[in-house]
Amino acid sequence: MSDFMADSAGLHHAVDLLVAARASAGSPHHDGILELGEWPATGMGGRGALEVLAGPALHDVTRLEHPGFFAHMDPPTPWVTWATSMWAAAGNQNLLHPDSGPTARQLERQVVDWLAPAFGMDGGHMVPGSTVANLTALWAAREVAGVRRVICSTANHLSIAKAAHLLGLELLEVPVDAAQRLRLDLLPEDLSDAALVLVAGTVATGAVDPLSGVDAAWRHVDAAWAGPLRLSSHAHVLSGVEVADSVSFSAHKWLFQPKESAMVLFADTERAHAALAFGGSYLSAANVGLLGSHGSAPALNLAATLLAWGQDGVRAHVDAGMSSAQALAAAIIEEDLTLWRPPVSGVVNWRVPGVEVAEVRDRIHGAWISQADIAGEPWLRSVAANPLADPQVVVDAVRAAVSW
After folding, report:
1. How many whole angstroms separate alpha carbon 127 and alpha carbon 250?
2. Which residue ranges form the domains of the chain, and what is each CATH number?
3. CA 352 to CA 403: how far, in whole Å?
């Protein structure tokens, strides 16, 4: 039974392995192949398992904190969340039951209550990601407002189509303008049976749809990426979000949380949650939303970060991301490269004149850039999710790659 008791030496060794791995130099990405062999008949013990897994778990990973990693909506995480993730695993609280997660349930409500007012919402709950948040919001729209259609732009996230399919709702995609924003002038005149989904930070370009000015049975803002701008000096970029009926955003993007940390927020949480509540003979509290059993790590990690940084710290980190994107855009122009448009929410799209996008990505070393399709054309895509990214490192790496 000692496996279930605290092993101080083992835990200290795990921390030592982690610190050593983070201190070592590494490339922004790794193409290693995992080879653990057969499942051993006789266990090797906790220390032995850590030694075997330290390579694939700590060394052979994408280094999201690398100064050349300016690619995806996946950030490095603050060290305090490494500690609280361990605490959460040790406690293994279940937020489904008040008996097995009493303070964990209160902690989730607390972080939601801290963040919801920035969006003009009065509450909500945490979910593993914005795919689940969007599905939950549209489920509430169907139950509360009787929607039968989902209307969104052609630049919407694929989770919207998934949600419409699962909920049996008709999906209508409306064209976007040259800046990849939903064209309000092409919306149907009658939206009395529709959920209008507006995007705050499209995946490809970071574009933000007009968030107000149109009435519908339900208005949902998918702010998976750009939502934290409401906590920054750039809150105006999401002006109008406060008139929505629901909002989704992913804390594991621009709030730098470990994966599976997101929220669905509602303007009228009591009404929405009542429509999504289910009970059972063994439950002492209603089960709200899609999740059954789920753990305390996302709420605990987020609470630790919000307490450690405070409102000023969160603002500074998100502001720094916007500044980094603007610095990259300026460097692109200075180097006579092609900038698609000035970044709106920390996503920069660019090209090297006369060189195919795929060729640039194949040649580049010491940096990492993603790719996006915009109006049928490929563009390089850089996302300011890494606070340690250096825009000049990225531009220099691209220049070196194309000068071969």
Report:
1. 9
2. 93-296 (3.40.640.10)
3. 11
Euclidean distance between the first and the last CA atom of the chain, given in angstroms as a whole number: 60
Q: Which burial class, exposed, middle or buried, applies to 21 when counting CB atoms under 10 A from its CB (0-12, 13-18, 19+)?
A: middle
Question: Nearest CA to 263 among 88, 94, 122, 63?
Answer: 122
* Residue 246 contacts residue 141 (beta carbons within 8 Å): yes
Per the listing, tokens 């610095």 go with: 327
Residues 6+ apart with CB under 8 A from 55: 32
CA of 287: how far to CAs of 74, 277, 335, in Å?
Answer: 30, 5, 55
3-state secondary structure of 220: strand
Reply yes or no on whether the pLDDT at 47 is more than 80.
Answer: yes
pLDDT for the residue 403: 82
Write the pLDDT tens digit of every residue in 236-290. 999 999 999 999 999 999 999 999 999 999 999 999 999 999 986 667 788 999 9
Residue 18, H or E segment: helix 8-23
Q: How many helices (H) and strands (E) does the chain have?
A: 11, 13
Class of residue 142 by CB neighbours under 10 A (exposed 0-12, middle 13-18, buried 19+): buried
Task: State residue 347 phi and psi, 5-degree precision.
Answer: -110, 125
pLDDT of amino acid 280: 66
Give tens-digit pLDDT for 381-391.
Answer: 999 999 999 99
Beta strands (DSSP E) in 128-245 are 149-153, 170-174, 194-199, 218-222
pLDDT of residue 336: 94
The residue among 309, 293, 283, 260 whose CA lies nearest residue 126 is 260
pLDDT band with cut points at 50, 70 and 90 for residue 30 = low
Residue written as tokens 């005149």? 189
